Amino acid sequence: MNSSKTTKGYTRLAGYKVLSFDKISSTQTYAHDMIASGEARDCTAIVAQAQYAGRGRYRRNWVSHHGNLYVSFIFSCDERDSRLAYAVAVAIVDTIASYGIRAEIKWPNDVLIDGKKVSGVLIEYAGRFVIVGIGINVLTNPTVAEYKTTKLADYADVTVLDLFNRLSKNLEKWRKADFNSVRQRWMDAAAGINTMVKYRGEMVKLIGINDSGALVVRHKNEYVLIHGDEIFM
After folding, report:
1. Is residue 7 part of a domain?
2. In what order do the strands lie in the sheet with 104-106?
3. Radius of gyration of the chain from its Cα atoms, rounded to whole angstroms
4. DSSP alpha helices (H): ranges in 26-159?
5. Tell me: the pLDDT tens digits for 13-31?
6. Is residue 110 part of a domain?
7. What is the residue range of 216's domain?
């Protein structure tokens, strides 16, 4: 693993360890390597200025040029919890809101501004840890065929360092919050609630999420619970 790391300028939250790199293959991969080698500990953040092999959900390529925030948080985890994705999305939305920018959540945790993607999340479990990977477009945004993208610089003056510090605090807050509070905040920020969306080739009505973190949609006269699939606005 690369040893050229620094924590200069990054908030030292109680018990946190921050590793910062100019460029690595992927913060997510680095986190996995730390866990595999036995070096991982609870509340570790791996931050990179750029990545040359960044990835998102379903192993999609995540374009990672300089000027944006790429971070993977490592947390101790006794068991998988699908509700964590909502806490992470809410933390990102609140962080963006702190700059006076209104953002929305596309289920389960893509974050949009004016209908354009500004942030994505990748949550993976390894051993007794969970890795929460977050990418936020700050100064640049990639051109992607499947959807439109945007960046925070189009809306406010944001630095990567300040963004990371605010995000860390919000993530700590919402990760420990009661899920009823998380659920309510997620619903307030969710895009497309009570509108028709496409799910597995069928048009369904997006209702929200339930207490266990499942997405609830209505297909004709039946309510359907969705775990882990994608919906299309």
Report:
1. no
2. 17-24, 44-51, 69-76, 129-136, 116-126, 110-113, 104-106
3. 17
4. 27-37, 84-97
5. 556 799 999 889 899 999 9
6. yes
7. 196-226
